[in-house]
Each structure stands twice: as structure tokens, then as C-alpha cells.
Queue: 3 jobs
Job 1
Amino acid sequence: MFLPVLWVVGHAIVCAAPSEDVAANEACHARTAGYLSRLVSGQLRASAYFDCFRPWPHMQAFLDALSHMHPSALTSVPVGSTTTGLPIVAYHVHAATAGKKALYVQATQHAREWIAGSSAVYLVAALLDAPGAVPFDVIVVPVVNVDGYEATWTTSRRYQRKNARAVDLNRNWPNPHWDSQGNSTPVTSDAFPGSSALSETETSSLHTWLQVQAPGLAAVVDLHSYAGQVLFPCADGHDKAPLQTQQLAMAMAQAMGADYGSEQMLRGLPLVGTFRDYAHRQLQTLSFTVELAGDDFVVPAARIRSHGEEIVRATFRLAQGLLTPPSST
Ligand SMILES: [Zn+2]
């Protein structure tokens, strides 16, 4: 009679408590308080902001502060909304050279992949620290799954992957093979694709915005963790990206370092409904998924800058490859 009560109480405590990872990063927030007033133009990557992982309001405040420092180089625009009505925000880094197409970089479709979001913010800081280094506009959405990301901070669900309706956003994008495999996955699965393609507010609202942007996009990169791979289309295995795209993926992996390789399908497994395939087929742009290297979704904060630098090198290499005409041989 007594034991179930203890279990219920214990269970309630476990469910209510944020994770140890959250506690460690909140202690880091306290240690680094006031960093927004100590930002130095040209040395943004050195900011104590990057000493810790940050919840979405901190990320927004930091990026908005950078925008105030560099109003002509960085602007923000709402590009979608979440299940609970929160805005999905893009940060647009404007290149010094006008007229070039843009690179689109998004992260954190999967809520638990904090290192993907921190690397996207780091990329914005690096682009502002080195104006002109990338002769493309770069549009960065650091957190697609804002609801899920917030849940990883405020509940015990540090390993939550899906959105507020338990849908894997990176299986919810339109795909010609969607129906054949999508609906066989149960809702309890971490890869539940939803009831239909674009059934989720996050994907449908971003799709509306991306369709307008598509003619101006040179390439897209979708950031994830953890596998140490630069992946090229198609994840579903039905089509293969042109050789130029494959070679560019390999070059990006080489630029990122020894922990990285490149391939079409992660571990050879076909996946339907990914953003990578949607961008390749529907937006008709070069499309890559970057899986940061590692061995867990929980990453020590000491690795924020080193992984951020990997994404910076990959982006610089991508831009360089886009400017180099493909070989005719
Ligand atoms: Zn992921």
C-alpha cells in the first residue's frame, strides 16, 4: 500500500525535474551573466555567450544584440510558427557583395540536438566577425522545433526529439514516396512522421516561406547531431544527387576534419520525408544534411566553439565550391 505512493511521488519528482545537463548549463548562465554588455565587435566568437548552451530566449537576445551592433549586416525575420504559436525566426546575414544567391542553414528540427543550434548561432557570429569572407547572404534558422527545444530545458525530457504533437519534423516533409512508408510508423516511434506530409505547423509554415525564397537559394544545409557525416540527397535512396553535389559534400567533410565522412544514406538506411530530399526535389537547390560528430546528444559546453568552427569551415568550403565552375570532365 505504501510502495505505490512512494513510486508516484518519486515518479512525479523525476518528471518535473530538468536534467543534470540543464542544471550544469544554468550554473554556467549565472557565472557568465552580463555578457550582452561586454560584446566586442570583431570578437563575437569570444563572447561568454558561447561558454554555455542556451535556451531559446537567450539565443534570441544574443542574436538581437548582434543585430543592434551590426544593423546593416544582420536582420531578423519571422519565417514560420510552431504548434504552440511561437515564432520561428531566421537571422539573415547580408553579404558585402550584392546580387549573389543565399545559403540557407537551419538547425534543431530535433529538439535534443543542442549542439546543432549552438553551432548555427556560432556561424552567425563568425560571419559577422569576418565580413566579406563568404560572398553569399547566409540565412540562419537556429531552432526550427522551438516548442520541443524549450521542453528539453524546462522538463525532464532532455532527450525529446519530436515537436509538441509528437511528430518527427524531419520525416514530415513532402516526398513522392511518403505514403508508402510514412504511415506505417507508430506515433510512439521517435520517427513518427505525422498524419500527412506538412501536417505540422512548423513544416507547413516554413514550406510557405521557403517556396518564395527558393529561386534565391544556392544551397541549403540542415544541421543535426550526432554521426560525423555530410549527407547528400536522396535520403530515401530513390534518386542520387549529381556528382558535383557528392563531391561538394566530400569537400565539406574534409574541411570539417578527421571525424567526418560523406555519404548518401546514414548507415545505409533509407529515410522518407527528410528536409534534405524535400529541398533537393521541391526547392531544386543543392541540399546537405550535416551530422556533427559525437557520441551523445548531450555534449559538454566546452565543445560549443570547436563544433561551431567545424560548421564555419563547412560553410566557407561550400561557398568556395559554389563559386568554382564544375569541371566538364
Ligand atoms: Zn537530428
Note: The chain has one domain: 20-323.
Job 2
Amino acid sequence: MSTDKNNIAVELTGFSGYELKHSKEYDEEITLIGPGTKAGEYFRRYWHPVYISSELGDLPVAIKILGEELVLFRDKSKQLGLVHKHCPHRQASLEFGICQKTGISCCYHGWHFDVDGKILEVPGQSMQTQEIIKEKVQLGAYPTHEFKGLVFAYFGPKEKKPEFPMYDSLNFDDMEMVPYKAPFACNWLQVLDAIVDPIHTAFLHSNMSRQQFSEGFGEVGQIDFFERDSWILGCNTRRVGDNIWFRINEVVLPNFTQAGAAFAADGTKEIYYGRSSFTRWVVPIDDETTICYAWANFGDRGDPHEYNTPEGPELIEQGEIFDRPYEERQRFPADREACEGMGRINIHKNENLLASDQGVAMMRQRIREQIRSLVDGKEPHKVTTLKDSPIPTYGGDSVINIPKIIEDEDSFLSKLAREFIKIQFEVDDKTEKERVEIVTNKLKEIQSRENS
Ligand code: FES
Ligand SMILES: [Fe+2]
């Protein structure tokens, strides 16, 4: 056996540690997100969550998003401000600023800024000097939007600012939405990759250490990928006894993700059109650090209310809590360990992708295409102009009862997955209530048809 590693033919006779050389070259085009980078410019066309509302008190906080040092604050009139960290006078940090009735004042010489970054006052200076400074200097600021306990911001050119994307799952009236965050010490793309890699649930979360979600996750099943506009969907279709369980993982480019329930679904009981249990954005802090901001969704069509505990969202996110002793992380690794273990920025050249990594390859390719088209002056997909609001989403679980009649059912499961996705796409323009009714009925029709 031989392999071709970075253009060097190596005889694979074992003990090849010396011969097998690894690349150190990461894929800058699709991983680096700082100001002025290609992927960074792409990210700066979308709204991103940056903080949990309830964690912002009366003091400013220093945060970093997309490689930018920022300060988030709420002034005494309750307006949010998201501004460059350093005061344009002599660069003191506004994390030590004083929140005012309107805006914030720098602690050092008192320059007072509105939430949009305009200078309101330069104390101790003549009116004439103040007018000149106001004309020439401003503090960088970004627009914010607060929704259901999360603070969102837009970091791109003003004239390109999209509407805030109102996905259907942001307003399910039968779900309780609880904000949470999940930090990762690695590049954003390796965190996002996991969503289009459904097969890892059968290994990392089930068969490798301990069962981290429900029992049914241990079955690999069939995996089919679908794509449209900004969407990439991975449907994992498993046989569980007499049932067939469809679980759809969803990515809306560049970084919005949804997936089915972690604990409510195990394929053993029928579910007609369950919806996402976590609605989440994978947000780059910088090139080597990431934070997911999300809502865990509790209710009959999501995860059970008993998981609405301080640790519940972490268990839903990755099957284990985040902050654990190192030994426990080694014995029972979860997504944090898998993603961070790749290194701060995963080097794709050292990977060996298989057919089951199709979703990962497809997503990276779509991201690259969007980045390149933006470089060529064509704006990337905007979800808000593709559909009328609310924007339909697809992540979730459905389980129907069809006892096994053929031995090798891989292609049968894939056929049903294609049919299920088609049914959902066909009702995109309906209201949420109509969609639930139609999709439920169609799933029941498939069930009767296959059982007759
Ligand atoms: S450094 Fe901020 S007012 Fe002087
Ligand atoms: Fe996972």
C-alpha cells in the first residue's frame, strides 16, 4: 500500500511517522474572518448574535466578534450600543466608560458618544473646537437588534444591511425559547462542519464512550444531503424497530444551524413534524475562537421541559456539559473535544474525506463560491429576499410507523427522505399552521401507502 501525501509517495508499511509529512497550510480563503479578509467580508453581510441580553448589566462589556475588539453597553435610556473598543481621542477602552442617559462617556477625558458613535460632547473644550472635532471624528459603531433575549449586530456596509431574518422557528408559539451560549477554542468552520456531519452522532455521541443522547442515535442509518439557495440539509433516516426516523440537520449559510431533539426523539414513538430543538448561530470571535449563541427550544415539538435547567442547553448542544475536568473530557469526549482537538484552525489538506463527509465538502464548497462571488462584486444569498417572512426552516425530527419488509432498505430509506424533503419544500409559502397540518397529513399518507 502506498499513499500520496502532499505530493510525496509513501510506502505504507507501518511505522511511517517519519515519512508521513503534514501540511501546515490552512485554507485561509474560507476560515479567516477578520476585517478585510474574504470570508470576513462575506460574514459582514448578515446579522449575528453577539451577547445574551440578561448578562448585560449596567456596566459596559468588552467583547470580540469577527476579530474586532468591541464594547457593548446599555445606556440609561435602555438603548444598546455596540462600538469600537478604543476611544478615538487617545485610545482608552470604553469598557471603563460611564453609561449616560444617552450613550457612553470615555473615562479618561470624558468624550461623550451616542449609541451610533457620533460625538455628543467634548468636555473642557471651546464650542468651536467641539464643532470641529464632531465634524472630523467619530467612534465606530454597529447597528443592534434585540430579540427574545439575544443581542444581534450587523457588521457590514450600511447600505447592504439586510432585514433581520425572521425564521419561522423564532416564533413557534408552542415552544419555550431559552438563550444559551457555547464557547469553542477553535475556528468557526470546524464547529459548523459538525452540523453537516450527521454520522458523528452514532460515534462521538453514542458508541465511542457513553450514550450522550437517546439510544436511537447509535444507529448510523442512511444519510442524504439536499441543498437549495442558502440551505444545506442533511437527512439522517434510521430504522428503529417498526419505525422510520427522519432527522434533519440544517445549515443556512453562512452560520445559522438547526437540528432535531437531543432527548425527546429516539425513533421509538411517532412524531409528525417535530421541529428544531436548538436554533443557533456559529459566531466567530476571531480566527481561533468561536461562540455559539442559540435558543434551546422546549415543548412538545422540541426537547422536554425537564431539560430546561442551567445545564440542559449544554447537554442538548453536545451531550455533555462544557466545563469539565480534563480527565472526564478524555473519558467522555463530546463536540467541544472533537472540534478543539483538531487544532485552532483545522488544516483541511491533512484530512481524508469519505462519501459520508459529503455534507462537509458540499458546505465548504458553497461557502467558497459565495465568498468568491462577493469578491467578484456579486452580493451573496440573502435569506430575507428569497422568501416572504417568516422564512421556512426544516431542522427537526419526524418518526413514522412502517415495519420492515425488505432486508436491504438503504435505497428505500433514501427514497422516503427525498419524498419528505420534497413535501416540506412544497409548502414553503404556507403559514406555519398550514405547513404543520399538510406535512403531518402527507407523512400519514406515506405511512398508510407503505403499510397497505
Ligand atoms: S482617551 Fe477617551 S476621552 Fe481621552
Ligand atoms: Fe455533535
Note: The chain is about 25% helix and 25% strand.
Job 3
Amino acid sequence: MDALLTEDERAILASVDGFASRHLPPDEVRRRDREHQPPYDLLPAMGEAGFFALPVPDDHGGLGRSWREVALVQERLGWHGYMAASIYNRVVGFGVMSVLTYGSPAQKRDLLPGLLSGSFFMALALTEPGAGSDAGALKTRARRTAGGYVISGSKIWISDAEGARFLLTAARTGDAAKGSDGITLFLVPSDAPGVTLSPLAKVGNNAMPSFEVGFADVEVGDDAVIGEVGGGFRHLMSTLHYSRASMAATVTGAAQAALDGVMSHARERQQFGKPIGSFQVLAHRLADLQTRVDLSRLMVRHLATLIARGLPCKREAAQAKVVATETLRDVADQGMQIMASAGYAADSDIQRFWRDSRLYTFGEGTNEILRDGMARELGLTGRQPS
Ligand SMILES: Cc1cc2nc3c(=O)[nH]c(=O)nc-3n(C[C@H](O)[C@H](O)[C@H](O)COP(=O)(O)OP(=O)(O)OC[C@H]3O[C@@H](n4cnc5c(N)ncnc54)[C@H](O)[C@@H]3O)c2cc1C
């Protein structure tokens, strides 16, 4: 499939490979996972390589390149190590694209240089203990004061909250007790007085720490508001396709990496005097899995072209996310079966993919809710949760 890439696109992939060989070889990926060490220290090197500047127009200090190139960086970083791709996506998806899409001119001027150089990043603080899929039911409040707002409430499962300079926080400023109206987005410094971060233990994605975040009367100025007051939910929806495209690209890379490892084991491991991959039942299973990874890649690249051309792509973004995340889940699950005891060993790569992959079918919008959205776009159902 890479045969169809342009020279510029190949150069981007070579640049990601160079970055990964210096900073994230396989043993380093394993070490960071084992030691729960996030890759925040790699952000400046990614910034220097120009990865964050790809989708940003030159008049904002970017490289003015296409989202197709962003998707290639995401896919290849996902192949080398999901941890690096996830932090890249956080900078580009939640940071750069949010500021570009609904930030004020002053926020663009103040925030984009640091984001593009990899000096800092933002975490998205949307989910609450009582508001997961039904994000519009969030209860965190931002009360108006003379010079700004006072935020109180709590968020849960906020990835990388501790390393982030800002928490892109959704809080209720309107009268409505529930519903997506009257939600406003704030850039809350993660070290602001009143913000508390409590780490959460979890199954996988060890190098992407998750936090419960408390807001106890956190004071912020008017300049902390990003986008329109009351328009926060609409703003989040307007950038969702970026984060779904990012996840789809990344997990496609991860699925290829997982499958490459399983294939190589299937070629080498001998039983009954033959490589196990030559038994038809396994050979066909592996061929099917590679077909599904290729299908994910096609959907990811098609979606990237739609984004690059500014065309509508809500359904395609949901479809790519669903197909790619379920492909990785099945590659990891079937891969474990094919590798058997070698995969079940604590230091195998497939066990890491297996643990990590369970998140992606419900992170960034559960696949059930995404299918609801697709069905609605197809005119099959009426108004459903988005
Ligand atoms: C490791 C990790 C990292 C995360 N990172 C972040 C982050 O950085 N920022 C952030 O804001 N959030 C984050 N999240 C939260 C994540 O986005 C939510 O877990 C997700 O939105 C689902 O919410 P929930 O877990 O509360 O599930 P629920 O909403 O309780 O859903 C449970 C099940 O019910 C199904 N369901 C719910 N409603 C419907 C319906 N109407 N129709 C059919 N099925 C339905 C769901 O599909 C799901 O299968 C993270 C979560 C995890 C575990």
C-alpha cells in the first residue's frame, strides 16, 4: 500500500523511523511500559522533527502540510510504540487542532509556538464519574465571578493530566441542569490552586497514566475560556473527527506491529516438524488478519484525504475508528492464541498489545455509540446520543 505514497510522504515515514530508532527502539518501548514511564521527554524531539507543525498553516508558524502526512506519522508512531503516538495525538488532536479551530487570535499567538515545539501539551478533561458516554450530563460547574470563573466538580480517567500544562476542561456555565447546551471549555493550568490529581490503577497503557481530577473552587480568568461561552460541546464535536482519525491511524500501526510479531513467531515456531504458520488453520487466520489491517489502513488513508480536502467525514471517522480498533483487538486476541505460551509470558509484546487494545473500542467514544451515530446518518434511527 505504501507503493502509492508520494516522495514527500515517504520522507515523513523515514523521518518517523529515524526518530524512533534514536528514541524508541523496541527495548525502550518495553522498558517504558514495564516502568510506567510516559514519553513526555520525547516531545521536544518530535517538535524539532516538525511532526506537530504538519497540519498548521505557515501564517501560524506551521509547515502547512496535509492531514495525510499527520496520519502517516500517527500510523508509523503507532507501529513503533503506541505510547509515543498517543502523546503525539494529544498534542495535535486536543491541543493544536482545538486552538486552531476555536481558539482566539491571542490564544493562537500564545499557545501554538509552545505546542509546535513540544514544550507542553493539554489533556482533555471531559469524562466524569456520572457522565461517560452521556458526556452532556456533566456536572462540573463554572460560576461567574467579577474577573472570571470559579470551577468546581470532578473528572475521571483523564489521560496524562499530570504531565499536561493545561486541562482542556468542559464545565457547565449555563442554567440547564443537563444537556449539551451551556457547556464551556476552559484551559485550566494543571497546577492551579484547588486542582487535585489522583492516579488510577488500570489494566494497560501503562505509559499513559490516568487520573481522577478534582476542582475545588478553582479560580480562572476570562482568558481561560477557549471558544464561545456556552458553545463548548459544539466545539468538541467540531474537532472529534481529528481525534477519531488519530486513534484509527495509530491503532492501525499498532495492529500491524502486533501482527508482524505474531507472523514472525508463526514462521519460526516448529511443531510436528513444520512451522506452525504453515498449518492451514493458522495460515488462513493470519491472512484474514492482515486483510483486516490493510482494510483499516485504506479507511484511515481515505479519511485523511477527506480531512485534508476539508470534506465532511463524520461517518467515515466513526467507521475508521470502529474498524481499526476492533481489528487491533482481534489481532491481539488471536495473536495470543497463535503464540500460546510464548504470548502469555509477561515479557512478550503481544501481551502488551492485548492489554492495551481493550481500551480503544470504548475510548474516544464507545463503538456502540459510534454505531448509533452511523445508523442515524444512514437515516435508520432518529435522534440518539452523539
Ligand atoms: C484509560 C482511559 C483513558 C481515558 N482518557 C480520557 C481522557 O483523556 N479524557 C476524558 O475526558 N475521558 C477519558 N476516558 C474516558 C472514556 O472516554 C470513557 O470511558 C468512555 O467515554 C465511556 O464512558 P464510560 O466508561 O463511563 O462507559 P459508559 O458510558 O458507562 O458505558 C458503558 C457501556 O454502555 C454502553 N452504552 C452507553 N450508552 C449507550 C447507548 N445509548 N446505547 C448503546 N450502548 C450504550 C457503552 O457503549 C458501554 O459499552 C478514558 C478512559 C479510560 C479507561
Note: The beta strands are 122-125, 141-144, 148-159, 166-172, 183-189, 195-200, 210-221, 225-226, 270-271, 274-275.
